[in-house]
Structures are given as structure tokens and as C-alpha cells.
Amino acid sequence: MHAWPASEVPALPGQGRDLRIHDTATGGLVTLDPGPVARIYVCGITPYDATHMGHAATYNAFDLVQRVWLDTKRQVHYVQNVTDVDDPLLERAVRDGVDWTALAEQETALFREDMTALRMLPPRHYIGAVEAIPGIVPLVERLRDAGAAYELEGDTYFSVEADPHFGGVSHLDAAAMRLLSAERGGDPDRPGKKNPLDPMLWMAAREGEPSWDGGTLGRGRPGWHIECVAIALDHLGMGFDVQGGGSDLAFPHHEMGASHAQALTGEFPMAKAYVHAGMVGLDGEKMSKSKGNLVFVSQLRREGVDPAAIRLTLLAHHYRSDWEWTDQVLQDALARLDRWRAAVSRPDGPSAEALVEQIREALANDLDSPAALEAVDRWAALQQESGGTDMGAPGVVSRAVDALLGVAL
Fold it and tell me: For the whole prediction, is pTM greater than 0.90?
């Protein structure tokens, strides 16, 4: 599966700062110090309806992570998956009377278009669940053969007790885990499981549903968590720098994925930091496909909204905060974009050296994009009020905003 084209990232004078970011597993800020190649895995979409503002906010957060690392002169090895076979996708295809593979291809193509328009840097590896199945099956067999998995009526489950570190990502109690498991794709009430929280690794073939050769597991399809584990281990290995996604993935998805990987390898941790973006709401509720309260990037683009303004709307909110989409936040972003473009269109202006460092410092401080925007606002206001004599300043600002914030002026 191919990703989307990369926009050019301008080179800036000087060098960026190492990133301090909130780690869900430790509950506090950690300073990331990757080697020459920083490694990041971000969980991708289930392509039955893409791309709403919740998606966009999440991928914007981890695009900023990449840009901070690139500014430190590191390379970035970014991996993202596509869950192109799963219950929600199959259910939507049945509802709409379409082939599930065609639906997945259509929505994945639209996601690529949205990511391109928003200037999100693409992953080096963009892997679908279906194409990962040949690598998933041996991992499930290894877990089963090691006693970390068991069969129940043809399905194969992971035993959470096989990982002594289980619970170390989300730090939830058993009651909260059970509740979230039921809400987020698990089956804690299924009779016969060793532990209600045990997640499925391999689902035996069901009549009328797609299935693949699972070797000694029999025909079926992979569970949600093992999909990401197989892709991450194959392309990044253990101990990669950041595991990213929305805050609703901390449990069960990232918790279970970490336990799968740790039980498979005997190593800890799977990722050095677990980083989670906040939820975007609409009309007082979290924006989600199940609720149908969605604002789509593609819809806004069709209405003629500048993608740069959409991105500025996202950047105006700290990545970890939960926030509400309104017409006003978009109008504020459009006005900001106009002010910035007017400022950099002038032939000279106030010196931009301090501004570049302020943007760098804000982003290095747990991706504080609102503070970065405020710094650019101050420069643009000074440009409007008194101008300046630095002939290169507008160009420096334009390149810095592009390189560090992903906004083309």
C-alpha cells in the first residue's frame, strides 16, 4: 500500500531542540533523545468513513513530532497502518450494499487526498492489515506455542497474564478496563475466556465474512491489536521512540499491543513513550463515526475552505486537550491566515531570528502549538504596526511556519 506525496520541508538556520512530551505510561513529561533516526508508529484509520476532524487533529499532532525531529537534523522513520478489514468496515459495506474492499480503497484514497491537502508528512511505510497477515500469523502461533495464547471455539485469544507489565500504559483498574473493553471492540462477557480482558488475536472464519489462511490457526482474520504489533515490530523493532494515536487508543489498543509485543520478545518497553492526542467534539459530544456527528476535511475542502486554515484551526488547540469544533474556531483561523499572509507579503519586516527560536521552544515543550501561533501573531502585529528593515525577515517567517507548523503562506 502506498502513502501520499511528501511536501517539501524548508531547511532553517540553526538547529531545533529535543522534544519534551507527555508520556501516558509515566504520567509526565519525558525528554526524547532518539538516535540519528527517530522511530514513530501512529495508528491509522479504519477506512469506512474518512477523514473527520478528530482524525485530522491526531495526525496533526504526530506530524508536529516529525517536524520537531527533522529540525534537529534527524531522519524520521514513521510507520502507519490501515485497518482495512474489521467489523465496522464490514458492517458499513453491508449497510451501503457495496463491496468491502472497494469501500476500503475508496476511503483510503480520500484519506490520502486529505493528508496531502493538509501537508501532513507521509509515513515511510503505510501498511494495510490485509497485506500484513503473512507476518501476523507466525506471531500468533508463537504466542500460542509459548503458552501466552489459547483457543476458544476456534478463535485464538491472548492471555493478559502472560505479560507482567500489563496495565502499565493506561494504569486503569480492572473495572475501568472491562468497561472500556466492552465499549471499544472487546468481548469481556464471552464465556470460556481465562480473563474477561483477554483480547482476540485470530478470529476463526465466519460465514459470509472474508478470511485468510492462518496456517495452524485455521482460516480467519487477525485481531485489531496484533495487526499493529506485527507491523511495528517488522519495520521499527522493539523500543521505538513514540507510539501515537488518539486518547481513546490508550486502552485497550495500546495497552494490549504493548503486552503482545512484550510477551513475544521478552523485552520492555515496546515504545519509549506513549503519546495520545485529545478528542474533538461537536455539539457537546466526542466526534465519532458511531455517533455520526462528524465534520469532514473533504467536505470543508469541497466548500472551498483553505486547507491551511483547517490546519491552523487544529494548531490553535494543544494536542492533548479535548476541544469543540465550531464555525467560530474556523473563522478565527481564516482571519489569522489572512493576517499572516499579509505580513509575509511585504518586502521587509522586523527581524525573525527570535521568532524562529520561540516557535522551536514552544513545540519542544510538549508540542505547544498555541504558544507557537501566538509568537507568529506578535511578529505579524509588529509588522503591521511599524514594519521593519530586515529584507529577509518575511521569507524566514514563511519558511519557519511551513517547516515547523506545516502551514504554507
Answer: yes
